[in-house]
Amino acid sequence: MIGISDDDPPDAELQQLVSRFIDQTLTEAERDRLEQRLRDETAAKDYCANAIRFEATLQEALNPQSLEWEETRRVVFDMKKGSPAWSVQRQQTIRYGDSDRSLMNRVTGARKRWWIGGIGVLIVASIAAVFFYQSHANTYSLRNGDFEAMDLSQSPRGVDQSVLYWQDYFSNAGTELCEVGRVTKGQFFAKSGRNAVKLRDRAFLNQLILNKAGGRLKAVPGLKVVVSGWSYNEGSPSYALRASLRFVASGYPDMIQYEAANVTMPLKEGGWHPFKTDLVIPEDLLRPPSDLSKNAGAPPPSIQLDGKELTLSLDNRSPGGVMYLDDLAIEIVNPEKK
Question: Where are the beta strands (DSSP E) in the chain?
Fold first, then answer.
């Protein structure tokens, strides 16, 4: 709930819509409803703007970040033939994150006469900017999911053991980036582009899941990560790919990982075939360590994974088999707010 007091409080629907907007849990229907009310109701615009400002101030008090905002504005709009004039002079200085966590805000207004429609446009534009930022903050995707970010045309063998963005914290000798057509002498090619990744048995890929704003995906009960892609498998009686969401407590040399969710899926043989699976974070996130290096010492204790940063791991679990992966992607489905 938003802790804002007002002499004329908004209705329950508006309070809920704005609260869910700030918590980034609006459904598509709720988003459309909020946008409609902000377009049609001046009081709704004012309440939403005040709520966003209050939330920003509260967050800064709890977790201050450096921000300095200095603004000088002078607008003059003077239509002829008796239409109303519009003149605004504004000077504003805001600083967050000082040692005393002070907020300094100075506003100087001269003459203010405006059309309500003009002010509505400014408020809606400001809120639209917040919507735009939050939509990016909620958009998670895999980096280099098609493996085309590296050019292997100048590589003598068309192979590289570095896979850009796919070796967060760990790498292993059984994983290779390949220019498939050249490596296989034209027996088959990548699903798209020129490159794919080759995994020997027990080899893996690992990537920290980030959004477009650089924020990290964190474990939340009910969160679902849909993993999809293409695989090429041939020459082994059975193929399986293990997908998991993990929290890496320690990397190299003392590797310690905790697993939030996992699934092992069978893969088809003979040519490229699509695969898709869901990784769902359970309600109980108290976990013992899932993977430890031999030199990690005494087994560490179980920990609560709620709020921990997640990586996606894809492991080849095909005894004696080699697989190729291409065009990997994820979709994040946030849990419904209770």
Answer: 67-78, 85-96, 140-141, 159-160, 175-179, 195-199, 204-208, 210-211, 224-233, 239-250, 256-267, 272-280, 286-287, 289-292, 303-304, 311-316, 323-333
Rounded (to 5) percent helix, strand, coil in the chain: 20, 35, 45
Q: CA-CA distance, 264 to 285, in Å (whole number)?
A: 20
Three-state DSSP at 31 gives helix
Given a cut of 80, whether residue 24 has pLDDT beyond it is no
Tally DSSP H helices, then E strands, for the chain.
5, 17
Phi, psi angle pair for 181, to nearest 5°: -60, -40
Residue of 43, 40, 41, 58 lying closest to 4 (CA atoms): 58
Q: DSSP secondary structure string, 203-240?
A: -EEEEE-EETTSPBPB--TT-EEEEEEEEEE-SSS-EE
For residue 275, count other CB atoms closer than 10 A to its CB. 17
Burial of 175 (0-12, 13-18, 19+ CB in 10 A): buried
CA–CA gap between residue 161 and residue 198 (Å, rounded): 10
Which is higher by pLDDT, 291 or 219? 219
Its pTM stands at: 0.62
**Digit-coded pLDDT (tens) for 118-173:** 445 455 555 555 555 555 556 899 999 999 999 999 999 999 999 999 998 888 99
Residues 6+ apart with CB under 8 A from 48: 18, 21, 34, 38, 127
